[in-house]
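INTERNAL AUDIT FORM
Audit reference: QA-55
Scope: verify that the stored structure record matches its stored sequence.
Auditor: D.O.
Record contents follow.
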Amino acid sequence: MAIAPLEGVKVAVYANGVAAAYAARLLGTLGAACTLVEGSEGSALRREAPFLPGGGCSALFAYLTVGMTPQQVDLSDADARRDLLGGIDIFIHDTALAKRAAIGLDEATLAQLHPGLIHVSTLPFGAVGPKAEWKGEEINVLHASGEGYLLPNGLTTELFPDRPPVKIYGHFTEMQGGTAAALGALAAFWAKPACGGQFVDISSQDAGLAVGAFAIQRLGDGSVEHRVERSFRFGGVIECQDGYVELLTLEQRQWEGLVDLLGTPDWARDPELNDSVARSRRGPEINGYIRAWARTRKVDDVVRDGQALSVRFRHVAHAGVSVPFRRRAIIATRKGPCMKPLAGIRIADFTVHNAGPFCTNLLSQLGAEVVKVESAMRPDAFRKPHPVYGREGPATFDQVASTKLSIRINLKKPDGVALAQRLVAISDIAAESFRAGVLARLGISYEALRAVKQDIILLSVSSCGQQGPDAHFAGYAPLFGAWGGLSDLTGFADGPPVEMRHVMDHTVGMHSAVAVMAALHRRRATGEGSHVDVAAREVASALCGEALLLAAAGGNPARMGNHVEGLGPHGVYPALGEDRWISIAVRSDAERAALAALVGSLSDTAISAWTCVREPNAAAAELQAVGVAAHASWTTPEIAADPHLRARGTIVEVSEPDGKQRAAVAAPMRLSGAPEIGIHRGTPQLGEDEDYVFGELLGLTRAERNQLEEAEIIH
């Protein structure tokens, strides 16, 4: 019988917010025994909308706490607190900083009394930094991390150009904080044999920024992203007879498949359209044709026929409630030094595009040695520009490739596969993100890799997973959100679904890193490797699990724009300056009274009149000073220059090979025993680390390497 990866690991969570609860849910999904600690009034999550029909139970609470054992504990009682924490491995909580010392939950007290405890703190803006005491609801953290300013885009922006930015459905950014907390907890727990317990500091703002890191990368290239220009030049959300689909064609063969799907119309025969840059320039014209065609078709027919022709279509619809990890075997490890949790772990990285590479990038920042495998004939697609994104300059490769080593191997040749297997034989983890079945056709399936490394951990990241009727479907980030249900729930009540962009890739990557860490723990316990199967569409579903649970119980979740049931006033309000906004979220009567005293009334009209004559950052500080959660809707230049993010080491400067400095986003967790985790090197040039990998690690002589290069094995 297979053993769950985290079986035997004991977790306690004291959560009144989503981030801490979601972290524990992920750990519980992977096999940890989770205790839900509640005070006499119960977790505030029990009172959080949406509620299931009939019984009045919170769907959010039910989703986040499934499988947990509730336990009422008076944490202000030192004996009760000692009894609780003395028997667990990981403690996760979101207690406000000002209240921690009074109940013994501050970092110093817990470190003294429980030196082996992994103590995980989840707060909107983290436990250190100038804004550590700031309040933050989901909408505030979303706008503090930059993604709020960039939504909506595509069709929604065309229809409603004058409306304010719109939030992602539910608790997207807080769940990123929870995922980061789970990853940080497992990294610290991994290092426990070497350095004992640690304090893990998680900021949901940091995590939201990490999954939206490409916006910062574009700033380094001289581009400031904006929701209007962020739309795809053609494709995106398309309306059909009976609903919406999402379309994305990045590669030439996908464009050719789209032309076939449309029936090869006369306009598409224009030779100029064979060039991707020309297609980008003529995007609105092409979209007009596509939209007219789609309005005469049904969603299921478009998706089925499009996939058959390699066109990346996805339903914009709900999916079933799912767990975003699958495991086929199981897992062990080497002990690493205290300062870097994953020091001594090596990863053979065959991932491409974004989701898989972001996973291995996070693991490299935690200390793993990641060897990225490409070839000159088939470099990573993100080394190239993609005009469909409206970008004809360098692609967004730098953020996910930093900290990695680079080598060239031609996997199209048997000797190239043999060379890749030699790399896997000296690695702990192999990672890939091809369509299901591609790895087997190349000759490096899980079974083949086990033959050269019996306890290898193979991570497979794909659109729909390695098994099931849709396993052959491929897709990109916007399509993951569409099929998983998150896009359908995001947008204005009277508008279409909103496109999820690269944030979906990155959240898939961060979830994958959690699964890989769990696999490492299991291998250390059993000596067995495993095949970790992550389906991107299931991660998207996990991020709106409460809505799917509500739908399964007969409810009707729907797009609500910036409205959140149970909070109010709540929204995005105009501020002084062109296209400047501020997010405000009010939860309690005390906060409503404070807001009313400041602005004169609780009506949206009065609030807008107050905010529109104030600079948004100054207005946010004024609101925070009276206890109201608020934050300016930040652009990328504001994020890159923010003293809080700089103080936390979230925004760092890295040097590129040409000597240029650029801002980059570091891993969204701070470990007390590993202060130097993060980005320690910029983007590698293709093949620049071959002397080390082929020479020192694999022992190839210069003559042997020359022969392999002449045969285009190393190429």
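Auditor finding: record pair retrieved intact. The first strand starts at residue 10 and ends at 14.
Action required: none
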